[in-house]
Amino acid sequence: MAVLKFRAYYEDDESVYRDIVVKHTQTFADLHSAILKAYEFDNKHAATFYRSNDSWQRGREISLQKYEKEYKAEPLIMSETTIGSEIKDPNQKFIYTYDFVKGWTFLVELINVSKEETPKTSYPSTARTEGIGPAQYGTKSLLGDKFVDIEEKYDLSAGAEGFGREGVSDSVSEAEESEDETFTDEAEDANHEEEY
Predict the structure, then answer these.
(1) Dihedrals φ, ψ of 2, to 5°?
(2) Helices (DSSP H) in the chain: which residue ranges?
(3) What would the pLDDT profile of 53-63 be if each residue is shown by its tens digit?
(4) Nearest-CA neighbor of 110 among 186, 195, 189, 7?
(5) Measured between alpha carbons, how far is 27 from 109 in angstroms, rounded to an integer?
(6) What are the two backbone dihedrals, phi and then psi, of residue 162, each rounded to the nearest 5 degrees?
(7) pLDDT of res. 69
(8) Per-residue pLDDT averaged across 106-121, rounded?
(9) Is the dihedral of CA 61, 56, 106, 119 positive or negative?
(10) pLDDT, tens digit (0-9, with 9 covering 90-100), for 165-187
(11) Contact, 14 vs 118, CB < 8 A?
């Protein structure tokens, strides 16, 4: 049984990706769930795959369900379509779109085919994680959920355009004034010394 390894890139940042291993007999519904799990997204929205080429053009649609929209050709249904049946190329590509309102798009590329399953691996599975994925809702960072608490506590959105103005201009002008006074005093002292 063939094991396929797909790399799912976040469309806006190619350095953010997840490698997902799946059996060729599993369906696109399995791959759909694996991508969402790898990126920590929920499973509440509409989704579709498009068979693609090297130029990332959208081809035949493999949809979670038939939606109320116009199709050039009837879509295949994810739960009825095995992944192996849609592999036409050793570097097969798919475009995966999730949540049509937000328009999350991932570029999915076949990067490896193995003939042997890894024991103790439950397929589909995330084999590699690179980069911090996008936050499906709100803010996500190295701190994870803790950042939202910090943001609320300290209201980080206030003065977001630059640094605050508190004390900046006053302290600079006071420092400049004291420097000016020092130089003036020294100059006067020097003049007095010359007179004597």
Answers:
(1) -80, 140
(2) 28-38, 146-154, 168-195
(3) 999 999 999 99
(4) 7
(5) 16
(6) -170, -165
(7) 83
(8) 92
(9) positive
(10) 555 554 444 444 444 444 445 44
(11) no
